[in-house]
Amino acid sequence: MVLRCFCSLLLPLLKLLAFMRKYLLLTSALIVVLDCLTKWVVQQNLPLYGEAEVIPGFLRLTHLENPGAAFSLFADSPGPWAGRLLLVFSLAALVVISVLLWRNSHVFNLTSFSLALFLGGTIGNLLDRLIRGRVTDFIDFYIGPHHWPPFNVADSAIVIGALILAGNAIFGHSEKKVESA
Questions:
Q1: Which of 14-18, 125-129, 164-168 is least confident?
Q2: Helix (H, G, I), strand (E, B), or coil: what is residue 79?
């Protein structure tokens, strides 16, 4: 009798928990798919170092291959140590983000959403590093001679996730949560 009552209460909770995890994993998967798809389109349609103006004077697509980190950090580092270090760092970040996301998966809030963005971005760039040894960057914002370092969808997801986490840490202690019952 007690077991049946407990199970009848636990089942809706597990369904909601599964829904939250699915939603967060779907967010991460969407980032990975968009990242891989956009990189593939650029690789197929722009030669290496090729450019396509999107908004003259502000935005262009530029096919670059980046052996470094986000925004081409460490791209000019001599020797293979930087690539290996980035691979190890990416794998460690993947584990930490996965654990944090799993622990927060019963709640859908800005923190769990930002972790899902981090996870998708990390996986997107990690796939490139594992398969090709480098990451394709192609989004190039600039005004006149002033350029933001080129980046990709995965980098964008990581930065947006970081901004959401930082903003939430600074301003968001009263955020609304959708929790399991």
A1: 14-18
A2: coil
Catalytic residue among 35, 128, 140, 155: 155
Beta strands in 87-170 (DSSP E): 107-108, 135-143, 146-147
Q: Which of 35, 128, 137, 140 is catalytic?
A: 137
Question: What integer pLDDT is reported at residue 117 of this predicted model?
Answer: 95
Residues of the chain with pLDDT > 90, as a percent, come to 45
Name the residue with tokens 């019952």: 181
Backbone angles phi, psi at 65, to 5 degrees: -110, 120
Q: What is the total residue count of the chain?
A: 181
> Is 76 part of the annotated catalytic residue set?
no
> What is the distance of C-alpha 169 from the center of its chain?
19
Q: Which helix (H) or strand (E) holds 178?
A: strand 178-179
Element (H, E) at 25: helix 2-45
For residue 43, give the nearest of 152, 116, 121 by alpha carbon. Answer: 152
CB-CB contact of 109 with 149 (8 Å): no
Query: What pLDDT does 14 receive?
Result: 42
Amino acid at position 31, single letter: I
DSSP string computed for 31-95: HHHHHHHHHHHHHHHS-TT-EEEEETTTEEEEEEEESSSGGGTTTT--STHHHHHHHHHHHHHHH
**pLDDT tens digits for range 44-62:** 999 999 999 999 999 999 9
The answer to whether residue 137 is catalytic is yes
